Amino acid sequence: MRFKSYFFFLVMMNSGNIFAEDKLCDLPHVENGRIAPYYYSFKGYYFPMRKGKSLSYSCVAGYTTETGTQDGRITCMAKGWSPVPRCYKSCQVPELHHGNYFTTQRELRVNEALLYKCDEGYRTAGGNATEEAVCLAHGWSLTPNCSKKTCPSLGGIEHGGFYPMKKFYEEGDVVHFFCEENYSFREFDLIQCYYFGWYPDPPACEDVTNKCPPPPLPPNAHIIADRRMYRSGDRVRIQCQSGYEIRGSGEIRCEKGKWTSPPICMGSTDKKESETPAVEANATIRASKTYHSEEMSSYKHGNSIEYGCQRYHLLDGPSTVYCKRGNWTERPTCLDPCILNVTEMNSNNIELKWRQEEFVFLHGDLIEFECKQGYKFPHVTVPSPGRTWCDRGRLKYPKCVFQVPMEKCDSPPSIANGALTLPPLTQYDNGSSVQYSCSEYYFLQGSERIYCSEGQWTSPPLCIEPCTLSKNEMEKNNVLLESFYEDQVYFYHGDYVGFHCKQNHFGAESGATLFQVQCKRGQLAYPRCVERRK
User: Fold this and answer.
1) What gap in Å lies between CA 384 and CA 400, rounded to an integer?
2) Can 2-89 and 91-148 be said to share one CATH topology?
3) For the chain, which residues make up each domain, given as ranges?
4) Residues 154-173: pLDDT tens digits?
5) What is the signed CA dihedral for 200, 202, 208, 214, rounded to 10 degrees?
């Protein structure tokens, strides 16, 4: 009996010497997991374990392997256990208020994605209607959440105010701005809270005392202009009719409520009397890249040259340079424009957001792109990922990725005093758009085009009523219409109307005889004139 035991001991010792080099892997420790109990009971027998041997382990409740399973298997390799046994916490689907999940699962494995959608009027943390959270080893990549999107509070406006005043504004809220007397807005007096913030930017009240009357029109000339209002700094081009030649600057400028001197349009008989044989030293030069004229072989101290750029090139620096003691003052440069590359746009799945006659933009211009139908901007933190700027001829194109088909939209909403430019359909695909137009003389405020976004239309525009001239109110207040407006009966919202007192009358409040009144949402505040006392 002793002999047999001794023989067994020797065999085990020899076996140990034979396989010593292969016994590489110790008993593994699996946090939040377990291996079979007998491995612990007979640890000295099984470990160190030989290369090529495998064992199984399992994760405790609430944890999974990296592949998302409850059980895993590892193998002893030259450098240890492979793969390293680990148990990751699985992700419990959290409760979601004001939204819905696209799955009924209550627990997701590692690397599984959870797609959710917020209710109307609510947005994800990324500002979207839908969002995707991924179950990672340490938990969710982001916490699913739907919140009422708010815009920041508005600061004070100089020479004006706004209403309503709130600490926070919700998406869809509209704020109305107003100005003090003698101040007005250049653009809109309404802004709206969108998921990406305020649009348009809050306006500023400008001094209307610097507003110029309609530009003067010299005989035999016509004006190139497309504005109804002019303020200090605005410029207007004047051109002569066929057969007449311009004398003086063809551009006039509004300065502190008055226009600079207009040019004269001269016919052939006038031209002979006014011709001068001398060539002026202050030459005007226009070029795509700056250079100076060779009309004069030399220039004297005090002479100047005016530079300009070819079409679409933006002048950077002083337009006029001077000869000072044999040297020219600093010359300007012409900044290159950006020319849209259709191939680049197609490769990035984008198109222009607004209709554009030409695909050329000046340096500093804001360019807005949108995704082609079936594509979307990837998850980004910036509020307007489709916006980019032209920078000295260089343009950074945004990129859109393929989008899973979204919900369709029903017929678009109707608007008061306006209609769709095309008959409506019963259903529209996600990303589709429709265009509105207002009734005659009604002012369209907002975007004329709205878009179908995940089953919901973006906000439609408003059609603001015009002002209708009242002869009774004019007679009642002893005022007459300025001759420039004499053929008009209707005025757009935001237009200015000129009045003057009847003969031997003056303003009851200011004593003035000329007035400029702005049309505001169909209302004209007529000035009141009274008769002079003898």
Assistant:
1) 13
2) yes
3) 2-89, 91-148, 150-209, 281-324, 338-402, 409-464, 467-531
4) 888 888 888 888 777 877 78
5) -10
Determine the pLDDT at residue 15.
41
Residues 469, 199: Cα–Cα separation, whole Å: 32
Please give the helix or strand (H or E) that residue 14 lies within, else none: helix 2-19
Q: Which residue has the tokens 């599984």?
A: 112
CA-wise closest residue to 308 among 283, 328, 279, 337: 283
Strands (E) located in 439-504: 443-445, 449-453, 456-457, 462-464, 467-468, 479-481, 490-491, 496-501
Superfamily the domain 467-531 falls into: Complement Module, domain 1 (2.10.70.10)
Look at residue 467 in the predicted model and tell me its pLDDT.
92
- Radius of gyration (C-alpha) of the chain in whole angstroms: 39
Classified as helix, coil or strand, 167 is coil
Of 313, 303, 310, give the one whose Cα is nearest residue 336.
313
Average pLDDT, the chain: 79
What is the fold of 150-209? Complement Module; domain 1 (2.10.70)
Q: Which residues pair with 59 in a beta bridge?
A: 33
Compute the residue count for the chain.
Answer: 534
- At 234, the amino acid letter reads D
Task: Indicate the CATH number of 2-89 among 2.120.10.80, 1.10.3470.10, 2.10.70.10, 1.10.10.10.
Answer: 2.10.70.10
> Please, where are the H alpha helices in 402-529?
471-476
CA 88 to chain centre: 42
Type and span of the H or E element at 253: strand 251-255
Long-range contacts of 258-262 (CB under 8 A, 24+ apart): 258/212, 259/212, 259/213, 259/215, 259/216, 262/215, 262/216, 262/217, 262/218, 262/221, 262/238
Quote the pLDDT of residue 404: 64
- Measured distance CA(313)–CA(501) in Å, rounded: 48
What is the model's pTM? 0.29
pLDDT block averages, 10 residues each, the chain of length 534: 39 42 80 84 84 87 77 89 86 87 82 85 77 83 82 83 81 81 71 79 78 76 68 83 83 80 70 34 34 52 80 83 83 88 88 75 86 80 79 90 77 92 85 87 86 85 91 92 82 86 86 86 91 78
Report pLDDT for 476.
92
- Main-chain dihedrals φ then ψ at residue 383, nearest 5 degrees: -70, -30
